[in-house]
């Protein structure tokens, strides 16, 4: 059993490889992932259910033990990223539907993949999980409201529809997972061995499906899309770290805030874009393309940062690591 757990952890920690490999395969041959389109919403529900089963009532009590860094991370998540998304879309003069997609994903909460990267970066894993949990619950209201505020002048936004969708694909699965954690703990303990890998593969499949469906759009707008998404996440990682540093937190917390701010729940953004910003005539959601590309960008940047921080730690004499970044 221990060997299986190590293998599952290894495969889960390779999530950037999964995301990039699936994205490249989708661009090479889109039909490989076309079959997954009807399962995008259920897959996101499974991801959020997997997050929910890892939670317990005690986790919410733990928030009270470290409220300041959690509050800082959540506030940064829903201020830095949305304003960055809007600013980049405006400065690059992105077409309306691409701009809406970029802003939508910037208004999403932190993704569960941030917990994996925090672990790899030797950040504060418990804090990362709590930040993800809090930002996910906050997103139920903030994602629809911020999206309507920032993109309402570009395209009409059904804020109540967005709110309903967020409740369905975020709140209900997380609450169901939380209930299962307490009702059937032994079953949940077995499931949580596999759920992180299932979540990683599900994210990769959602993004690959959307990338494949928007292949021509992505290739024709490759430069501006890559620039926009890259700047969004580079800005999120940098400003998140700088803000935590400004408040004089130690490097482990700075790393954690940086990762939590820089990595979005791109799967949620992609699903919301497909549900609410799809062209009724073509059946294609152009707004979903930046969301899917976002998953690739933040996975690569986050993993590169984690590797850099680990190398820096390992290159320092024992006792000096983590003193400063």
Automatic annotation (TrEMBL):
Keywords: Membrane, Transmembrane, Transmembrane helix. It is found in: Membrane. Pfam families: SBF. The chain crosses the membrane at residues 7-28, 34-57, 69-92, 98-118, 125-146, 166-184, 191-211, 217-239. It comes from the Bacteria. GO terms for cellular component: membrane. Gene3D superfamilies: 1.20.1530.20. Its main location: membrane. It is a multi-pass membrane protein. This is Bile acid:sodium symporter family protein. It comes from Aeoliella straminimaris. The lineage of its organism: Bacteria, Pseudomonadati, Planctomycetota, Planctomycetia, Pirellulales.
